[in-house]
# Entry
Amino acid sequence: MGEHRPVFQRIADDLRRQIDEGVLAVGARIPSRAELKRAYEASDQTVDRAVRLLKTAGYAEGQFGRGVFVADRAPLGTLLRSTGAVDSPFAASITLAKYPDGTPLTWEATSTTVPATAPVARRLRIAQGETVVCSQYEYLADRQPVQLATSWEPLAITDGTDVVFPECGPYARRGVRGRMAAIGIRVVRAEERVGSRSASSPEAESLGCPPGSCVTVVERTHFDADGRPVETSDIVVRADRWRLAYDIAFV
# Structure
């Protein structure tokens, strides 16, 4: 049976194989355009497209004025998502090998009121255009970007209380469950749906990866005792550098 893959795909696959097998080690220079043209008898456009594919997949990164090099794809650490970690804005425990006793974690957040988009309204079971508090988070560990998150809460639930803006007031940094408890709402469960997609340009810039890189997205929604959604969020991490782990308790 003949080979049906495009030439650029075959070149990219062969380079990926060499990287996976250690023939091209982390930090090694990817062969130049001229070298790839000779090796694969391909055109400039074809080898350029193959290298772009490697970059997008996180296998290679360009260094201005020097060339393209094999990227380090080893996981930086693990984000453990469990009931013991939900009561903070980060909503996970972080583990890095270099910090066995805990990882320094910082974050920045901004909150504003906006009309609910159709997807957010569906998740919160409210009318499209209804006002929600939108909070955007950027998390850093050891001064390196770890996670982005965008959270939405119906303003009708928190308006006029001390917990309208998650990072302000006496209940700042308590997490959804702690903040809602302060206004008499008991959050009893959270639902998470995990998927993947390409990073947008702003996400790539914040997370330190090439645009189009694969990211893991956790769609998380908190529910009160009546089954009402009180908050929903999108959590974004680099798929090539962070593992998600779940602690599942049986009762």
About this structure: The first helix runs from residue 7 to 20. The longest strand covers residues 187-198. The chain has two domains: 7-70, 77-246. The radius of gyration is 22 Å.
